[in-house]
Automatic annotation (TrEMBL):
GO terms for molecular function: lyase activity; peptidase activity; single-stranded DNA binding. It comes from the Eukaryota. The gene is hmces. Gene3D superfamilies: SOS response associated peptidase-like. It comes from Symbiodinium pilosum (Dinoflagellate). SUPFAM superfamilies: BB1717-like (SSF143081). Keywords: Covalent protein-DNA linkage, DNA damage, DNA-binding, Hydrolase, Lyase, Protease. One of its GO terms (biological process) is protein-DNA covalent cross-linking repair. This is Hmces protein. Belongs to the SOS response-associated peptidase family.
Length: 327
């Protein structure tokens, strides 16, 4: 958790999201981003980060770049060792509770924080031995569409910023801002390779609607907490408590959860049907004619009614025949 998402944001929209209220935002690697309604780890996702620089002005520049979802640490000898699909370690999620004591995550907490953008993500809700796929996204009325340029202190994070104008490309609802950590791995040897990759932080979903679905949830960022999360001058130890508090509040009040079709269970299915509410998906299938094979069995009362109607028609036919003969 979170291990499957929907991503249809264009590169230009990602840049506008990252550069709310002015400022400079670069866009790099957008050709690696693919519009997918069913996307898993090892794919590339849009990441907002603060550019590393020596000067104060450079440190305030932001960049949107495509990073592999599934972090490969800089000290790794081989990238394959951190590919869960090839028997390596699973690093597409990181538990926030143990991050400060982890050799893998601790070195990234202050200087390599980032914001991962998603339309929404999927989770499977258990019902005994069966699981129901659910889609989680921001509510339509939520106005957190861009990240302010100026970060706020931890005391200011409770305040709500001014809503921004909605963009037209991609989903109409505001995208999810997820707290992430990134790293840069360099392959040594004859063939040089650089890989930028990212992990998504997760937390306990207690006292939110997410606790009914799964025992973990992403650390959700609001526009205000996202700005502070991207500020390398704010220590992790100072920001994490208000960030988690706001994440919990966001999950409880701003998220929309609904059931989707089992179509999403197969990661090869990437069509827009994956994010349709289950009822709308079923209606769409019926409209295509597929549903005629699954029509519900009529009730006994309906069968009796049809039988009476048929008998009435037969009696009427007999009367009509009598009339014709008399004429």
């Amino acid at each position: 958790m979170c291990g499957r998402g929907a991503l249809t944001l264009s590169g230009d929209r990602c840049r506008r999201i990252a550069g709310g209220h002015g400022g400079r935002t670069a866009l790099r690697g957008s050709d690696r981003l693919r519009k997918k309604y069913n996307l898993g780890p090892m794919n590339y996702v849009p990441v907002v980060r603060t550019l590393e620089g020596s000067g104060q002005e450079a440190a305030l520049d932001r960049e949107v770049c495509a990073m592999r979802w599934g972090l490969v640490p800089a000290f790794a000898k081989r990238a394959e060792d951190f590919d869960a699909f090839k028997g390596g370690s699973s690093t597409f999620n990181a538990r926030v509770e143990g991050a400060e004591s982890s050799n893998l995550w601790r070195r990234l907490l202050d200087k390599r924080r980032c914001v991962v953008l998603f339309d929404g993500f999927y989770e499977w809700k258990a019902h005994g031995k069966t699981k129901t796929p659910m889609f989680i996204r921001n509510r339509d009325e939520y106005d957190g569409h861009t990240i302010p340029w100026r970060s706020k202190t931890s005391e200011d994070l409770q305040k709500v910023g001014e809503p921004d104008e909605k963009e037209l490309d991609g989903p109409q609802h505001a995208p999810l801002f997820l707290a992430g950590l990134y790293d840069v791995w360099h392959q040594k040897g004859d063939v040089e390779e650089t890989l930028e990759s990212v992990t998504i932080l997760t937390m306990d979903p207690e006292h939110t609607i997410m606790e009914e679905v799964h025992d973990r949830m992403p650390v959700f960022l609001t526009p205000e907490t996202a700005a502070s999360w991207l500020d390398p001058s704010v220590p992790f130890s100072e920001i994490i408590r208000p960030v988690l508090k706001m994440s919990q509040a966001h999950a409880q009040s701003q998220l929309l959860l609904y059931e989707v079709s089992p179509l999403v269970s197969n990661i090869r299915n990437e069509s827009p049907d994956c994010v349709l509410p289950k009822k709308k998906y079923d209606e769409k299938q019926l409209a295509k004619g597929i549903g005629r094979f699954f029509k519900p069995k009529p009730a006994d009362s309906d069968l009796k009614s049809k039988k009476r109607t048929l008998e009435d028609c037969e009696e009427q036919d007999k009367e009509d025949v009598k009339v014709i003969r008399l004429e």
